[in-house]
Amino acid sequence: MAEKFSSKNPIENKRDALIKATAFFDAGDYIALMREKSPESLEREPDGTLLIDSSGRNEIFTKTIAKLNLVLEERKKYIEHLLEAVKNILAKESK
Predict the structure, then answer these.
(1) Nearest Cα to 16, choosing from 73, 62, 60, 92?
(2) What is the pLDDT of residues 12-66, one digit of tens each?
(3) How far from chain centre, in Å, is Cα 63?
(4) Contact yes or no for 90/29 (Cβ under 8 A)
(5) DSSP 47
(6) In contact, 21 and 82? CB cutoff 8 Å
(7) Which of 39, 55, 60, 65 has the most CB atoms in a 10 Å sphere around its CB?
(8) CA torsion, points 29, 92, 52, 7, in degrees to nearest 10?
(9) Whether the Cβ atoms of residue 19 and residue 81 lie closer than 8 Å to each other
(10) Does residue 5 register a pLDDT over 80?
């Protein structure tokens, strides 16, 4: 019987889980911030794409990057998880 082994060590798995959880909890704050600063950024593109504004003016990213000491690859993961959480929240609100 073949065994499955993760290519990540337990610390990396916990770190990934922390990044995902932080993005999940930041999603509501991100939506509130964008509704205040840039409501149009929460509208989907004609092709259905939703873009995340991760510019330097966004204090959520600045805080999270510093708090978790995210490296570039982790920042990308964080944004991917944040995007998914934001999409889910907006979809629930539109029902």
Answers:
(1) 73
(2) 889 999 999 999 999 999 999 899 888 888 888 888 888 888 775 578 888 999 9
(3) 13
(4) no
(5) T
(6) no
(7) 60
(8) 90
(9) yes
(10) no
